[in-house]
Amino acid sequence: MIFTLIHNATVSIIVTGITFSVVFLLYYLNSKNAITNEVSRKVAHIGAGTLYLALYFYNDSGYLSKYLNIFPNILWTCILLWIGQYHSRQNQKQNVVIDIMTRKRGKSELLRGPLFFNFVMILCGTVYYKTVLGSVIIATLTWGDGLAAVIGVRYGNQRKIYGAKSLNGLLTVFIAGTIASAFYICILIDFQSIYLMQICVLCFSAAVIETLSPSDLDNLTIPLCIIFMLQPLKHILQQKRIILASGSPQRKQLLQSIGLNFEIIVSDFAEDLDLLSYKENLSQYVIDTAEHKCRHVYNELKLNENEKQNVIIIGADTMCSLDNDVYGKPSDKDDAFRMLKIFSNNTHQVCTGVCLCRGDMMMRTFFETTNVTFGSIDDETIRAYIETGEPMNKAGAYGIQSLGATLVKKIDGDYFNVVGFPIYHFCTQLKALLNMEKK
């Protein structure tokens, strides 16, 4: 935990130093008439968006410490408020912040566009931390709007749409925002989370709103537009018959917690795949088991052609491993004691494989692995825990969401994966599956 805190704090300090260095460099170039005020403002704009990619280097297992990424923005917000409200007019002519971040070198401007921009950066660094929504907002607001201002001023004089806004600027917000959004999502999340048609619709809508918005408010209107436009695919899910091929109460609770409507049909698959053939590839074992569960339920349903169009079956399997030895559900109390004794004072891996199966047998499979470290556990504690009955129906003989949490020293990865189902990864894959249907 301390190492993670130090790591994230170090990244935050480096990013903060870079932001101040860039601002002073732009001020120097501007004072030498090497660049114009408009260019320096937008370079700062784009630079802030580029530094948002530093989220890639933050350790997510640090819980609250990952939110140290917003420290530079909080610091700049305080500076903007101080200069905008209390700074002496005598120093205004030589003020670096006013020269770089305002159009007309008026300190009151700092309390509109630049302040809104920092609020949005803080929002995307906390509420929308490493999400598709946060990536699209920042990419469009920085690269899209930043390049649009430069191109609009340089080439858009004859193609005005509204005030100082031009058609060239609108197209630049759309094109640059779309490209940058895809890049940000790929870096901060994963390639499979890129839904190009959805990104295009969001960026075009944001471009139109930006063009029709006053210049001081576009830092606010662009993210608001994207937030309201990015609707989950609920209308598609409502038309689907979603089946969970598992009797696990943990998976049932987790899927209910995200508002998914589904029914449960427990698969009769015996889960008898040869573990020895998967000894060094546990992820493939849990994926294959999840796929077999889906196939068994699919065969049991005996769907007609119309029913096949609206069915999604979810199969999942979770196993634990340590030093290439695999641990499933304990067969009896002695087996549970053996597992927990081995895990004591060691780090094991929890791997969940998931299969999403459509009615046409189109499947998407994936897995998630989390490292779990147990503290030192004495035999008396292990036996007392076993007597509660909790270990007997759980992979690895413990439940991290209940009494088993008292055995866990730390985890590295997705907590819900240890519970039995990787919610975040599932949602990204479900979106990808539904978007394939839309195409």
Descriptive account of the structure:
It is a single chain. The longest helix has 30 residues, at 2-31. Helices cover 53% and strands 13% of the residues. Helix 5 runs parallel beside helix 9 (218-229), helix 7 (167-188) packs across helix 8 and helix 14 (333-343) packs across helix 15. The protein has 17 helices and 9 strands. The chain has 439 residues and is α+β, with helices and mostly antiparallel strands. Strands 3, 4, 5, 6, 7, 8 and 9 form a 7-stranded mixed sheet that branches. The protein has helices spanning 2-31, 37-51, 71-85, 96-101, 113-126, 132-155, 167-188, 196-212, 218-229, 234-237, 249-257, 282-301, 305-308, 333-343, 379-387, 415-419, 423-438; strands at 160-162, 165-166, 241-244, 263-264, 311-322, 325-327, 347-358, 363-374, 408-412.
Low-pLDDT parts are 156-163
- Going by helix content, strand content and strand pairing, the class is alpha+beta
The topology string of helices and strands comes to HHHHHHEEHHHHEHEHHEEHEEHEHH
Straight-line distance between termini? 44 Å
Q: Give the helix proportion (percent range).
A: 40-55%
Give the oligomeric state of the chains in this entry, treating copies of one chain as homo and distinct chains as hetero: single chain
Strand segment tally: 9
Q: Any idea what the radius of gyration is?
A: 26 Å
| Beta-strand residue fraction | 5-15%
Average the pLDDT over all residues and give the rounded result: 81
Main sheet summary: 7 strands, mixed
Count of helical stretches: 17
Query: How does the overall form come out from the CA principal axes?
Result: globular
